[in-house]
Amino acid sequence: MDWPHLLAFNLTLLAAMASPGPALLLALRTALVSGPRAGIATGLGLGTMAAAWTATALLGLDALFALVPWAYVVMRVAGAIYLLWLARTMWREARRPLEASGTVPARAFRTGLLVNLANPKSVLFAASVLLVIFPQGLTGWEKAAIVANHLAVEWTIYAAVALGLATGPARDGYLALKPALDRVAAAILGALGLRLLIDR
C-alpha cells in the first residue's frame, strides 16, 4: 500500500460524505440546533461507526453477509426502522421550539453511532471501495492504518462542519426556517429508511 492508495480512498470518502444521506443531515441539524459541542460529538459518533464499518469490511463481514443472507436482512430491517423512527420524530417536532438546554454531547455521540450503524450497506460500500483502491494482501498494520485514516478524515470533516455552522447567523437562519427544513430532512430520512427496507 502506497500513499496514492490512501489519497484515492480519501477522495472517494469525501465524495461519499458530501452526499445528502442520513449522516450528513444529522451532523448539519445537530450543529445548527444544539451548538458546536453536540455537533462535534455527533460527528465523532458518525465517524467512529463509519470507521468501524471499514474495519469490518477489511475483516470480511461482507463475506459473512454473503454466506448468511438473513443476518444482513435483519440488520437492514432494524436500520430502516430506526431511520423511519428518526424521520417521524423530526417531522412531529418540526414546529416545536428548541429547548434551551440543547443536546447532551454523550447522547449526540450515541445518536451518531446509531445512525451509521443503521445502514449495513455501509460495510458493502466500504468493501467495494477497498477492493477497487487497495492492493490484495494487506498486512495487519496496513489495515489498521486505513481504519485510523478513515477515522481521522471523518472526525476532521464533521468537526469542521459543526464549527462552521454553529455561528449566530447560521443558527438564526435555521430557526427562521426550522419547520420547513426539519420536514425536508425528515422526508429525506424517511425515504432513505423506506429504500433500505424495500431495496433488495
From TrEMBL:
Its main location: membrane. One of its GO terms (molecular function) is amino acid transmembrane transporter activity. It is a multi-pass membrane protein. The lineage of its organism: Bacteria, Pseudomonadati, Pseudomonadota, Alphaproteobacteria, Rhodobacterales. The chain crosses the membrane at residues 6-28, 40-61, 67-87, 123-141, 147-168. It comes from the Bacteria. It comes from Roseivivax marinus. It is found in: Cell membrane. InterPro entries: LeuE-type. This is Threonine efflux protein. The keyword GTP-binding does not apply. Keywords: Cell membrane, Membrane, Transmembrane, Transmembrane helix. GO terms for cellular component: plasma membrane. It holds the Pfam family LysE.
